[in-house]
Amino acid sequence: MDTIEDIKVQMHLEHNIRARRGRLGLSLEALAKKSGVSRAMLSEVERGNKSPTIHLLCLIAAGLSCTVSELLGEEQPRRVHVLRADERPTVRDEDGVERQVLSISLMHHGLEAVWYVIPPGQSAGPFPPEALGIVEHITVINGKLSLDYGDECVPLETGDSVTYRIDETVFYRNTGRITCRLFLLIDKSHLKRRNEND
Fold it and tell me: What does the domain layout of the chain look like in residue ranges?
């Protein structure tokens, strides 16, 4: 059963998708072409009839030229911004994979900080390649993870870190017997600087 916080996040998500699509002047058909998500599914998500998976939300965000964190919640940056553990905007898949936003204020600097929870035997992805030189950094907090990067598999264990460009399709797979928790930092700061200089 959804908690009140789950419902709040979902309502915020529906509003942000509609609002951003409107600001960009995109019809549902246009967003479907840009994102690869069907018009019918987009309509269901915007009306709150469907909760998107993490993968689906990544596709929608890409179609709207923004981050998943931006869709989950936008706030103005403050000098000190505290986001309590039980207040993190969270997307949960049916297989138990969770993606939680760790900082909303960092988005204004072109950074996206994410906490992933992946149960044993489960995976997150695929995440399509980006052509803009976006860099990701992962640190495994506990458990075992296989980073499937194109045709390469990179095994990671507790405490291991990896940094890579998003120019290949990526999967995160929990290959261990316990829940894998990882910290993901997505660096798009060079895109922000480029936009400011244009």
Answer: 4-72, 85-197
The CATH class that applies to domain 4-72 reads mainly alpha
With b meaning 16 or more CB within 10 Å and e meaning fewer, what string describes 125-144?
A: bebeebeeebebebbbeebb
Distances (CA, A) of 6 to 9, 62, 80, 96: 5, 23, 25, 14
pTM: 0.67
Q: Which helix (H) or strand (E) holds 72?
A: helix 68-72
Cα gap 187→190, rounded to integer Å: 8
Contacts of 21 (CB under 8 A, 6+ apart): 28, 31, 46, 64
Torsion 34-60-74-116 (CA) sign: negative
Which residues lie across from 142 on neighbouring strands?
A: 181
Note the pLDDT tens digit of each residue in 7-28: 445 557 888 888 888 888 889 9
Assigned CATH topology for domain 85-197: Jelly Rolls (2.60.120)
